[in-house]
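Annotated sample (chain length 129).
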Amino acid sequence: MPTSPSRNLETFPNPETTRDYLIRMDLPEFTCVCPLTGQPDFARLRLEYIPDTLCIETKSLKLYLWSWREVGIFHEAVTNTIVNDLIAILAPRYLKLSASFNVRGGIYPEVVVEHRADNWSPSEPVYLP
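Output written by the structure step:
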């Protein structure tokens, strides 16, 4: 197999460090395993971040997310762990991860985790007519 799951996240230099800009990624194929039943859990992840000096390389992110496929872990734990791992490698100005899990027992769980760097504050919002 040419590629396999990996927890090795890779980065590249932010090409524009002088301004805040938002990177959005829709990651619709996330899977892990329910730690109580062993059944698969499926989720759509939505990652948004404002880079500081580094950006995430997307193939490494894909392989990283694949590495969770056989891991038994609660939704809250996996979402926070992914955010912690991204913060550790990127040190972004801002990062938000929304994890929308498929229905289980009539409930659609969604876990949203945000991070803001200590020395960063958002720009004033622009409102257009």
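Annotation: Helices lie at 58-66, 75-90.
Annotation: The beta strands are 11-13, 23-33, 40-50, 54-56, 94-101, 110-116.
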